[in-house]
Batch of 3 targets.
Target 1
Amino acid sequence: MEIFHYIIANWPLIIQRTGEHVEIVGVAVGLAILTGVPIGIAITRSKRAADAILYVASIVITIPSIALFGMMIPVLSLIGHGIGYLPAVIAVLLYSQLPIIRNTYTAITNVDPALREAARGMGLTHLQRLREVELPLAVPVILAGVRVAVVMNIGVTAIAAYIGAGGLGAFISRGISQTDPRQLVTGALAVSVLAVVADLALLGLQHLLTSPGLRQTKAAA
Amino acid sequence: MIRLERVTKLFASATIPAVDQVSMEVPEGEICILLGPSGCGKTTTLKMVNRLIEPTSGDIFIGDKNTADYNPVELRRTLGYVIQQIGLFPNKTIEDNICIVPDILGWDRKKSRARAAELLELVALDPGVFLKRYPKELSGGQQQRIGVLRAIAADPPVLLMDEPFGAIDPINRAVIQDEFLKMQAALKKTIMFVSHDIDEAVKMGDRIAIFRDGRLIQYDTPDDILAHPADSFVSDFVGSDRTLKRLQLLKVSDAMMHDPPVVHADDTLKTAATLMEEHGHTAVVVVGPRGRVRGYVDLATARENRGKISEHSEALPTTIRSRENLRTAVSTMFRYDTTWLACTDDDGLYKGYVTLRGITRLLAEAYRDG
């Protein structure tokens, strides 16, 4: 009951911090799509490059977020942004690379070779094949990668409150330091709800962007 | 016209060429079947025409232009291409699949969509139903028809087909083959068609090129390939029943006796007997006033009885249309235990007769010449 009252009383603050949270994840994952998808496409040309890039991206994702924030402080301090918004965005950007690059790469390399041969044989250029066939086929898989990145990084961003990036993590960090269960639970609840809502919204987007010709029919599912 | 001049392909990883000094010419408007066992170089040869594979040496001409002088992408847009796996784009509707080449060529959308509808009519698929469907909603046979339509959408003079009907069940395959031949009779494309099926080659080809180990062994009309195989490889490949296969290349009209004697229902049996004796026949066909087949009278009946033919004629078990092939004719004879058939035109008018003896003579002629 106490928590309920707290939520009602602090509704504007919750909305504000949700906005900050969404901004960090949105900007960073948006940038990650702009970088990850072209990288994923580029490495389909060379197996060696693909192995190297995916290896590096896999290593990055194993670094604990708190350690990553720590490592960025001295580096970004040089430009006066050791803590706050910038390192949070950079961390999310880095963590998002693996799911997005990997899914793009897998989706494009898994395009049926017969489609590629038909497209080549009919005189489509490399870019036309990408635009007309390969990317439309890859969209559902790429968006699945984006969903993974978003959900995972809503969690990472909660921790970014410790480096002063704001967001819903601020409720949690204050709840811990002030031993105030109301803030703690409010923060945890809000982060969870945000993750679930974002996932469902992206699922809807994925459905919308997938050609009806590729959607699973009920009979097949 | 497609002309190959001493075309050779040596793959980087191989020591013997996949295609070795192949020279051949496919005349305008004809279907040439590249035939042979797997690994014989037929598909490699086909793919060198649209430069999906670049020849190691030799020249390929489309019309009188060397394909090496084209940009490969531009070249491919002027050559229709159909593959066994079809490769319809699952993300596009049937309409957009058919229009892919017109679209990249920048045709007017209205014009290309109208053409797609027109093409669907050509293969008896209702445009109202199919234009907006996706490939996964179509059967394999329907998909392959769309694959062919997609290849001819931009009206290329030349079609390259790589075992286009290989993945379709035998019943549907025969239907699609017939449909395609009908289409080709109207379109008159110059076609190079890879197959490993001698029956398909005999049925579809104006000419057949037989490949073995990268070399062109024999390039001839189907009847010549079947009647005069160049060597034991070809004769083994076309099969020991190759003479029977020739039956489907020949029409009933080729073996038919034209302007046969006929009698009418109200003639006398005596007239019939005299007529048969004159021609040395043992039976004569009775026709109606407009020339339709009514039945027949045999010599013994005509000699032993008196009166009008109408009282003694018997019905024929069956007749055959003169544009059917001889394979159908022979099969019909076996089915009805007879050695001759009355032949009619499409309107059912009596045109002549065909006998088993006449068919065997016709087949044997090719061997006497050789």
Target 2
Amino acid sequence: MPLLFPLVVAALLFAIGVYGVLGRRNAVLVLMGVELMLNAVNLNLVAFDAYLRDVLHGGQVLTLYVIAVAAAEVGLGLAIVLVVFRGHGHIDADRMRDLADRDAVDDAIAAESAGESAAPSRSGVAGADPEPVAVTAAVES
Amino acid sequence: MIAVHGSVLAQEIEIESPNIAYSAIYPILIVFGVALVGVLVEAFAPRPRRYVVQTVLAAAGLGLAFVGTVLVAGDLPETQNGLARGGIEAEGALAVDGPTLFIWGAILLLSFFSVLLFAERRLESGVTAFAGQAAALPGTEAEREASTRGLEHTEVFPLMLFAVGGMMLFPASNDLLTMFVALEVLSFPLYLLCGLARRRRLLSQEAAVKYFLLGAFASGFFLYGIALVYGYAGTVTLAGIDGAITNRVGGDGLLLAGIGLMAVGLLFKIGAAPFHAWTPDVYQGAPTAVTGFMAACTKVAAFGALLRVFYVAFGGAQWNWMPMMWIVAALTMGVGCVLTLTQTDVKRMLAYSSIAHAGFLLTGFVGVQAATRDSDDMTSLVAVMFYLLAYGFTTLGAFAVVTVVRDSSGEATHLSRWAGLGKQSPVLAGVFALFMLAFLGLPATSGFMAKWAVFTSAWAGDAQLLVIIAVLASVITAFVYIRVIVLMFFADPVGEGPTVAMPSVLTVVTIAAGVVVTVALGVAPQPVLDLAHQAGEFVR
């Protein structure tokens, strides 16, 4: 089999993965996009390994490492996504805008409410303190 | 049949035990070993004792590893006609040479002070700044119980040590496999640490998920680059890739695509434009101690790895990647400087400032000025290493100051809340002003010497245009830093103003270290420059 076939398949797979990361908003589907990218890399590595007749099988060894690291990555990622889901009630990457560059209007509001130093009214607007209950508890203890 | 086959295999293959010079790589093993001990402490030590045990263990481990690094650096053999010192260890996986050891020393010093910041307890009235129970939802019964019982995640110390281990492995790795593993080992603990803030947990978790998704995305590109370079060179060792480039084996498309994709992964870690989008969000959302640790240590490690890959492996294809790096450096400085102007949050401002500094560092990196024997020229390697050390201590100190300025809801990070800080606490505001002036590059601070070193090497390396852009960018950012100083000393406080909490000795020591290094490297930089100079070039 010519080398070109697996390379093209891998490139397409990688492109699908990139599309998945950029086009999807659900964090789990984004994670799946990343997995597709890593698997495209694996296909590439194995194809090159076979084509180059690498006696040390560097490509295959690297593939094993990639698989292991990808597994660890998924475990870590799902843990983070789970805790975010329980906290935010959604895992929509586009709606997580509490940390982002704001325009001037948002800033004016944030500055104003920061000046008032009234904690409850700030939640959501300034994105500074969404959990007043927990904070008071922490202060009391 | 199978039995016969097996016996044939047994006869033919004799597995040699790998030759690992433990005497050269033990600092890295100490860090990983202490991290593992830390995991065991979590499992077996009673809860009330863990904080003290973990803090002492982490600080002692990092201190010991630093001493080890100094000892290893003491007896490095000279190679390559005296241009480089050190050797390739662990069967070609690690290059323990002068630059590696300098970077190890920088990382270990910076992470030692980061441990002190991590361990700060007085600011949160008796607990660390990390979540008591990360799995408990903010505002629920479980969270309240965790708070009243004074729980805290002491796992942050072993997590941080694993990250430090990865950071040490990253610039030392001599093949792309080790480099990939090191990249992930340094990243994974950081993803978790970002999400563990005690206050503003939702923001912290958002930072973690953004960092994780973008980090995984970038490491996908990095890996694809590795695969293509492997396809080009047929090997993943840096020397082998260099050999393939020198011998022009053909298939340049693979090489160029591979270099580009690997650069994406490395530049992401550095926080260079256009791969900087995560930096402000993550720096703002992460617990401030973690932000300081990331800003200082990750940058050192990632720059070390970038320098090694591009100088050692891709040095032969320099004319191919140089235009790309020119554009990235100019863009990074532009984006960093212009967007620093518009920030109203201290942590975001420092984040954009770190992007701008990544641009200055890239300027030094682009002006490749290789060492020649018996010359005292400022090589780009020396300049960048000096800059990393100077910037690391300044930025760690600046973030340490941010942890101290507080109001009722925790850290007061909005810049308007910093108005009039100079009247409240002249010393603290003065210290922060010093860090601002160091970022700006005022003479007699480390920032000036660092920028001077980087610009000198870039100028000598025919990157004059880039140096001019960098000087202009410095002038733009001067406006921001001076605005902060004016705000602190000459503006009236809004409302009741922020309070400056009295931290424990841990944070005080960290801030003091930042001040001392910032001033010392500004006034008497020569010993450190000499040290960086003695480190020599990368071994090949």
Target 3
Amino acid sequence: MTDEPGIALTEIERDALTELVNLGVSGAALSLRTMAGSEVLLSVPAIEVVSRARAASIIGSQDSTPLVAVHQAFEGEVSGRALLIFPEANSLELVRAVTGGGLSLEDIIDLEAEALAETGNIILNGCLAIIANMLERTLRISLPEILHGTGLEIFDLSGAPQTEAAVLFLYINFSVKDRDIQGYIAMLMDLPSLAALKLLIGKLIARTAEGLETHDAGP
Amino acid sequence: MMRYKILIVDDSKLARMSFAKLLTGLRPGWQREEAANAQDALAAIAAAPPDILVLDFNMPGRDGLDIAAEVIQLHPRLPVAVISANTQVEVITRAQNAGASFLPKPLTAEALAQFLAAAEARLAAP
């Protein structure tokens, strides 16, 4: 992670944030598994402080692959944007998976935007709700919006004032087993939110550590 | 009551802290060891096998299910639990097929108490 003045996370803060994202995304994966009917495979979460341009290149704008994203803004003590992102070529396959496979191609195309928005809404809300509950705070979550474009275009569309401004970028890679569906669940937060998030993470760590002896028993 | 040694393997220190707090509440006299990855866990088990093993599923490198399968082959009587927020049926089934219990994250005292009671019964059996 980039160490920038005032916003660097300590090791235990980064650890706790990674675990928090893991809890949120794992809950979201269960929702997607229920909808798609196949196991959802997840990577270990990654957390970085990077420019928006760098975040976009991680997601895959370098080769200009067209992407589709379901985007929802969240607001509260911490604010940011949550995105479900995947290659546009996977879009119909995802809709086919979540609609049960009995529809014609024409019907799937008709339903695409609505089905993507609802799928994203369930996954992103599930993820954010778990994180909010763990932090013991309320997040207001906007309605889902569908974005099309390269990674950079998607991150620009999702409210980026400057592509070089540093953001906290949390992401996890997912794929649906036996289906040609893979993508990312990502969250972007600007640096003022990171300062607020550090405070909430600190409280979570303090609640967890309360009553524990300070030394570790093992390695 | 017997006092057992339990090894908790999780790459997250927060998760290990959370586990330690619940364990201390339920079994204050037990010895707890920790490992943050597969390599350290396997080294700790080789040096002095624990009485009970709890493994996180989603870790960098080898995951907890992979380690569980290997350890259970070597120590078939060792009570093992795989712990994860990933509560998809495939993960739970793979844990059970490997001979391990499954504990959902965030871990509750009730779920841990149930696993510990089953583990104690298994260890006390002739």
